[in-house]
Every structure is written in structure tokens, then in C-alpha cells.
Amino acid sequence: MDENCSRWGNKFGFMILPVYYHNTKDADPLKFVKRAKVMIDRKKQSLGAHFSYYAGKFTMSLLGPKAASMSNHKILCNTTFVISNIVGTQEESTFAGNPMTYITATTTSLPTAVMMHMVSYAGKASMQISVAKEIIPDPRFLAQCFQDALLEMKTAAQPATVDDVC
After folding, report:
1. What is the pLDDT of residues 71-92, one digit of tens each?
2. Which of 50, 69, 79, 97 is 20 to 30 A from 144, comparing alpha carbons?
């Protein structure tokens, strides 16, 4: 294989973030988004995610795929909520001449209580939630809460129109 070719495969690291619950009706929803953004930007600038990636790569090369898989499984066993965010193309794509209506990502059999995948494609966002039924008995209610929160943030983020100001 040519040395200059691009590499295939997934590359990922872990960022551990605290999740806070606030039961306030009149709070600005963007306040929480801005706070999370600051926290995530700090984590991105730290070496934590890079270290976890290289530790996984080192484990894979030194001990093999079985040990790397066990290590990832142990990390996920101690994680409650996993979020995956994939940014897709802005324009619609085709596959073998057929238009793609949406793109989705999924992971199964993970030992986490909640897994949420967000994928944006052609100006639309799709959300997929996987839950452990023993822990989350009503996943539709949880999905509705996520949807309401996202719509509330979107509404708060839209600039005020002239009619709103006057």
C-alpha cells in the first residue's frame, strides 16, 4: 500500500464532562449552552482527549485488539451518558444515483444508560437515542425532553426581528 494514501478507520478520544441538572423555568437556555461550550473548549485545549487517543493506540499496538476492546468497554461501563456528534454535508448527496434522505450513526450493546447520536445533514438535524429500559422506562418522554430543549435553544439563539423589538 502506498505510504502517502490517507488512512482509514475511526479515531476517537474521550472527554469527560459533568452534567448538571437545573430545574428553572425562567432561565436563559443559552446560558447553559455557553457554559458547556466554554467547558468543552477548555477540554479540547487540554491534552486529555489526545492522551486518551494515544493511550488507546498504544494499548492496541502493544497488547492487541482484545486488550484495547476490553479497555474501551471498561471505560464505557463507568460512563452514564454518551454523546456523539457528526457533522454531515450541507448539500444533499446521492449514493449509486439514489438520493440520501438522511444519515445516521448507531452503536449497539453498550453498557451505558443513555447514548445519543446527533447527525446534521443537508440543513436538517436528526437525533437518535438508545437507552437501557431498566434505567429509563419511558424513552419517548426523554426524547421529547431533548427535542424541547433543542427547540428552546434554537428559538433563544435566533436574532430578534424588527417586529419583536418594536
Report:
1. 888 887 877 777 666 677 778 8
2. 79
